[in-house]
């Protein structure tokens, strides 16, 4: 049997990291088995579902590279199918019309609570045939009255639920719309889902869904209920902990591969390996190796992975993502060095691509002002002669390369008999605007010789103005 998994988010917000991890596990399992991965948008809650949220999910999945083989299916486009099967269950006596009003049901529930019982529908209309003419009704599923449902969960092991715990679930509301649990069941069946990987918050739905699947004569898929993600403080991960939306991680400058590697390890392990290529994830992944306990989110580790991948992924892959951040900072990349060359010398200096874009503007455009502190410290009258000297030597270079640039700097220090820093720091502030940059030979090499001259001239003017004031 070929494996088919699915990710079935409800489009009520963004794609959050918990959902993304579930999606990743489903995707990995399908890939590891040579199976298919289905994307299904569970938009039956019309009040809470939005087009924007649907798009946010698609964007998040695409950004992560979790491509789907089938879908995205929309539940709202499948209402006819749900209705057809509800009618079938009615015809077969496996479901029934319930005419109980909401008020009546509330009253019963209150009484049950007062008696210390669990509120449940008492099966009032299960066997009645005296249906009132023209009244609206809900359709309830006839849950088996005895026996038990057994789930052999891939993560949580064997779970048994007695049918006496379950009441007759509404599968069609009185307004005619099908309910959530019913749609999930029909979809899982129609889409040939063999393995349902989802959050543990759905574990209570599973026995009901299994009973409905059985009533329909559908095969029962395997289940794997993934535990929650907690924040670093041990509480359920929420906005309080910072970013929880996958796209926020993009905006903050993380590489999708770093996020995927981070998420896969959040609850799953393969020995003590921390770094995984996608192929390695696919090769080693198994549902049975997912841990049962909740996992705590650790931003430091995500940053560590991001730094690792900025340095180690093929530079064109990094640059594709970095480009977006430079554009976000309104940096025009057409006039300046190849972005790949900037990445090569900046990657180990930053935590994120956003930070990289923020500190790399000087490669592409002239800056308006020198950083105040750096200028105060390094663009002083004493720097004038070193700057003039190094500029002459730099401008005399025929072949603009790191070696020749370095030689010009060294010779300046030698000739003037001053330390390297007395040449290097003013030069760095002059050319980059601040006191932080990769080594000068590599930095200047990526900036045109003429631009270097212009910026040094500007620094000399700055020093002159300072002398005169
Ligand atoms: N739509 C559900 C959710 O977003 C998932 C349902 C399922 O995976 O069965 O939580």
Short description:
The chain is mainly α and about 475 residues long. It has 19 helices and 12 strands. The chain has a 3-stranded parallel β-sheet, covered by helices on one side.
Write structural notes for this entry.
This protein has 469 residues and is mainly alpha-helical. It folds into four domains: 4-76 and 228-302, Rossmann fold (3-Layer(aba) Sandwich); 78-226, Rossmann fold, CATH 3.40.50.620; 314-360; 366-469, Arc Repressor Mutant, subunit A (Orthogonal Bundle), CATH 1.10.10.350. Helix content is 46%, strand content 11%. The chain contains 19 helices and twelve strands. It has a three-stranded parallel sheet, with helices on one face. Strands 4-5-8 form a three-stranded antiparallel sheet. It binds glutamic acid. Glutamic acid (GLU) binds at residues 8-10, 42, 184, 198, 202.
CATH architectural group of the largest domain: 3-Layer(aba) Sandwich
Looking at the structure, what is the overall shape?
elongated
* Total strands: 12
Number of helices: 19
* CATH homologous superfamily (4th level) name of the largest domain: HUPs
How many whole angstroms does the radius of gyration measure?
32 Å
> And the CATH topology of the largest domain?
Rossmann fold
| Terminal CA distance | 83 Å
The bound ligands are:
glutamic acid
Low-confidence spans? none
According to CATH, what is the class of the largest domain?
Alpha Beta
The pLDDT mean sits at 96
Q: In percent, how much strand structure appears in the residues?
A: 5-15%
Please list the strands of the largest sheet in the order they lie side by side: 1-2-3
* Structural class by secondary-structure content: mainly alpha
Question: What count of structural domains?
Answer: 4
């Amino acid at each position: 049997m070929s494996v088919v998994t699915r990710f079935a988010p409800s489009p009520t917000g963004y794609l959050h990291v918990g959902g993304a991890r579930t999606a990743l596990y489903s995707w990995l399992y399908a890939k590891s088995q040579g199976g298919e991965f289905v994307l299904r948008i569970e938009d039956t809650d019309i009040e809470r579902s939005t087009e924007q949220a649907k798009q946010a999910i698609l964007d998040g999945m695409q950004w992560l590279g979790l491509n789907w083989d089938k879908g995205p299916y929309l539940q709202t486009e499948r209402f006819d199918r749900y209705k057809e099967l509800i009618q079938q269950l009615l015809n077969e006596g496996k479901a029934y019309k319930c005419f109980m009003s909401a008020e009546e049901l509330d009253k019963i529930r209150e009484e049950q609570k007062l008696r210390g019982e669990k509120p449940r529908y008492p099966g009032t209309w299960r066997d009645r045939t005296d249906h009132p003419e023209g009244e609206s009704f809900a359709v309830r599923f006839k849950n088996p009255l005895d026996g038990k449902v057994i789930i052999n969960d891939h993560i949580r092991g064997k779970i048994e639920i007695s049918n006496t715990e379950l009441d007759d679930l509404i599968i069609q509301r009185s307004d005619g719309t099908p309910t959530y649990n019913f749609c999930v069941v029909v979809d899982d069946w129609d889409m040939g889902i063999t393995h349902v990987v989802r959050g543990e918050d759905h574990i209570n739905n599973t026995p009901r869904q299994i009973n409905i699947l059985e009533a329909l004569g559908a095969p029962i898929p395997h289940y794997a209920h993934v535990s929650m993600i907690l924040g670093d403080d041990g509480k359920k991960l929420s906005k309080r902990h910072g970013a929880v939306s996958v796209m926020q991680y993009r905006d903050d400058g993380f590489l999708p591969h770093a996020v995927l590697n981070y998420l896969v390890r959040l609850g799953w392990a393969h020995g003590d390996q921390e770094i995984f290529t996608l192929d390695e994830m696919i090769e080693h992944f198994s549902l049975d190796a997912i841990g049962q306990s909740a996992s705590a989110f650790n931003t430091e580790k995500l940053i560590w992975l991001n730094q690792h991948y900025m340095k180690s992924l093929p530079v064109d892959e990094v640059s594709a993502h970095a480009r977006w951040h430079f554009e976000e900072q309104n940096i025009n990349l057409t006039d300046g060095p190849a972005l790949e060359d900037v990445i090569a010398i900046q990657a180990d200096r930053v935590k994120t691509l956003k930070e990289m874009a923020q500190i790399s503007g000087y490669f592409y455009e002239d800056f308006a002002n020198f950083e105040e502190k750096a200028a105060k410290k390094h663009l002083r009258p004493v720097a004038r002669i070193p700057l003039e000297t190094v500029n002459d030597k730099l401008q005399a270079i025929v072949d603009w390369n790191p070696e020749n640039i370095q030689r010009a700097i060294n010779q300046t220090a030698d000739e003037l008999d001053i330390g390297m820093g007395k040449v290097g720091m003013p030069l760095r502030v002059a050319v980059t605007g601040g006191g932080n940059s990769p080594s000068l030979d590599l930095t200047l090499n990526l900036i045109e010789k003429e631009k270097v001259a212009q910026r040094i001239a500007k620094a000399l003017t700055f020093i002159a103005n300072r002398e005169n004031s």
